[in-house]
Amino acid sequence: MDTRKKLSIFKKSVRGLLKQNKQSLCDGDCVYLNPEGLKCAIGMLITKGSYNPKMEHSGPGDDRVQKALEKSGIIVSNEFDMGFLARLQDIHDGYEPYAWVDIFADFARVQFSMSMVEAKKFVKSLKPKKGK
Predict the structure, then answer these.
(1) Quick one: which H or E segment has residue 26?
(2) Domain residue spans in the chain?
(3) Could you give the CA distance from residue 107 to residue 87 in angstroms, rounded to a whole number?
(4) Cα torsion at 44, 90, 3, 81 (round to 10°)?
């Protein structure tokens, strides 16, 4: 995955999470897609037709998750790509939504070689405008 593709994935996942502003939970566990239609970081990348309920409670490296991502146009070709996706997922799973802007900004800073000011501005630009 090149930097442009990672940036596109980051935007799609983070934009969706910031709009949703809730973790995707089912019985207290993070899930790719919950009964209310909320999605996790990787769930944001998986198309409706590619989703498989059997992948729930599996990590992003699971074959079923990889197949759903591939059918959605995301090819994970090495451990660096997997690490990138796993970090997005870890932020969704491990932090409350009020902390996401700061945590995603720090991830963007490192991943895309930005200053913290640039990264925070970038992540904030992904948040939906009030009233939308």
Answers:
(1) strand 25-26
(2) 8-125
(3) 8
(4) -100
Find, among 26, 28, 27, 67, the residue nearest to 42 by Cα: 67
Q: Which tens digit of pLDDT belongs to each residue from 110-130?
A: 999 999 999 999 999 999 887
pLDDT digits (tens, 9 = 90+) for 75-99: 998 999 999 999 999 999 999 999 9
Give Cβ neighbours of residue 33 (< 8 Å, ≥ 6 apart): 24, 39, 40, 43, 46, 51, 56
- Predicted TM-score of the model (pTM): 0.94
Distance set, CA 43 to CA 10, 33, 114, 130 (Å): 12, 6, 26, 24
Which residues have CB under 8 Å from 102's CB, separation 6+? 120
